[in-house]
Amino acid sequence: MGFASPFPDVHIPEVSVFDLLFRDIGQTDPDRIALVDAAGGVRTTYWELIERINATAGALAARGIGVGAVVGLLAPNSSLFAVAFHGILRAGATATTINALFTAHDVAKQLTDANATMLITVRALLPQAREAAQTVGIAPENLIVLDGDGETATGHPNADDLFAPGAPAPQVDFDPATHLAVLPHSSGTTGHPKGVMLTHRNLVANMAQIRPLLAMRSDDKILAVLPFFHIYGMTVLLNAALQARATLVVMPRFDLTEFLDTIQEHRVTYGFIAPPVAVALAKHPLVDQYDLSSLHTIVSGAAPLDAELGTAVAKRLDVRMNQGYGMSELSPVSHSMPADGGRERFGEVAPLSSCGWPVPNTINKIVDPATGDEVTYPAEGLSEPGELWVKGPNVMTGYLGNEEETTAAIDRDGFLHTGDLARVDHTGRVFIVDRLKELIKFKGYQVPPAELEALLLTHPAIIDTAVIGVTDDDGEEIPKAFVVRRPARPRDTHAAAGGARQAAPAACRGSSRGAAPRTNRGSGVGALG
Q1: Do β-strands 270-273 and 440-442 pair in parallel, antiparallel, or remain unpaired?
Q2: Which residues contact 473 (CB under 8 A, 6 or more apart)?
Q3: How many domains does the chain have?
Q4: CA–CA separation, 83 vs 93, rounded Å?
Q5: Domain boundary residue among 133, 158, 183?
Q6: What is the percent of the chain where pLDDT is above 70?
Q7: What's residue 191's pLDDT?
Q8: Partners of 73 in the β-ladder
Q9: CB environment 360-393: b (16+ within 10 A), e (fewer)
Q10: Are 70 and 115 spatial neighbours (Cβ–Cβ below 8 Å)?
Q11: Domain membership flag for residue 424
Q12: Which of 129, 110, 123 is nearest to 401 (CA)?
């Protein structure tokens, strides 16, 4: 049976990603600023962006890249990433976006899995990109270094080499419902990375599903620090924010000081973050030195956000704090709070212990993993926990070259089995408990690590924490927590903002007393990379 989204269904156009974003650009929109590179202040208008995307598509087509080809994209956030990404899709090819922290071995493995014939990167990542390209047999002329010295000097084309010829963008013909737009890699509901096949329709559908909920406006300045290579940044920022004709203020990486500087200098209005950033915003003294009053909304995703932590950020910055849930296999957003938290539609603001409601055009089930039966949906309060299943137009077509994993993840009725435990309340709000495979079984109790982590983060002396299950001397599984302690000396405070890199972790054995009943507190976006 399941339960449907409480929001009205939305229309999903049968178009490509490029056509959805740019074909209907209005009379005034071309001169609007689309992208600002925070590091150098370079501004790109929507018209310049479209011209460069078309030029890139034309250059790629001239090099034999089109429908059926896969291009690797290994780069941090920048306006050049946006151009390259949409240029690949505009040419009719498929982009496999690669984690900028990957080693050469990791890059080569993803290129091989995706059967990529070209790799686009930047100068800072060239050593691992070149090694990976050589490993998989990509020729030097097909290793493009966007900010490099160019093909004449190095043998590797750069962005100018792509833009200069002025070859027209090709006329491409494909079915958006079946043609793959992107191949991000995700560990999904099992441990090892797999290519997630997402079509143009998947991405277009998810933009349509989240647009009325996130309510991004053309006058918003949206901070783009979440990596574009990750499905969260790709859909919500690189696609949905551009569809709204907002301005993306782009950061290549997170640094707390630069993050705060960027919000203050560019008067950022809308922020998308992950929970570690929320910890810094809630607890770091540096925050008080900046004027962040331009912010009206922050959305947290990519991992569970504890309600107390989210509330602390909202109070400290005087912003609306929301969160959602999703994963690469869902393009990625499947649950979200509306921009007003749900006040207009439901008469109340959703608690931050939830991840909001199912997005439009979706159906959910919560299924007891032990019996396979749906849980009983409550007239009030919360249901019992079960695995969350999601069905909708944003569900991937499958894992690349892995029918067995695809069949295990998507059942005959089209429901994606997320691998996450969840509860639902009488309004249809979903509360994520934890990953099914990460539950700690202690003396008959199922203890979610995320809830112990949330509890530990309420302690003022703890900056960050991770809880795992270990076996004690008696063979009993018990929780074990690693915590990053707040430095006691003032000169150490700034260093601690980055988390565990500069603060020594201390291990402690957690107790499950009081933990099992706290299963209504888990939440967050599980947008798996």
Answers
A1: unpaired
A2: none
A3: 2
A4: 14
A5: 183
A6: 88
A7: 55
A8: 97, 120
A9: bbbbbbbbeeeeeebbeeeeeebbebbbbbbbbb
A10: yes
A11: no
A12: 110
CATH number at residue 448: 3.30.300
Mean pLDDT of the chain: 88
Burial of 472 (0-12, 13-18, 19+ CB in 10 A): exposed
Cis peptide before 505 (omega within 30 of 0): no
98, 82, 204, 211: CA torsion to nearest 10: 110
Q: What is the pTM of this model?
A: 0.85
Give a yes or no: residue 359 inside a domain.
Answer: no
- Look up the CATH number of the domain holding residue 160: 3.40.50.980
Find the domain containing 455 and state its range.
443-518
Q: How confident is the model at residue 494 (pLDDT cuts 50, 70, 90)?
A: very low
User: What local confidence, expressed as pLDDT, does residue 438 receive?
Assistant: 67
Tokens of 313: 């950020």
Q: Dig out the tokens for 51 from the structure.
A: 């011209």
What is the DSSP annotation of 364-398?
Answer: EEEE-TTT-PBPPPPSSSBPPPEEEEEESTTS-SE
Tokens 């277009």 locate to: 204
167, pLDDT greater than 90: no
Q: How many CB atoms lie within 10 A of CB 24?
A: 10
> Domain end: 129, 153, 183, which one?
183
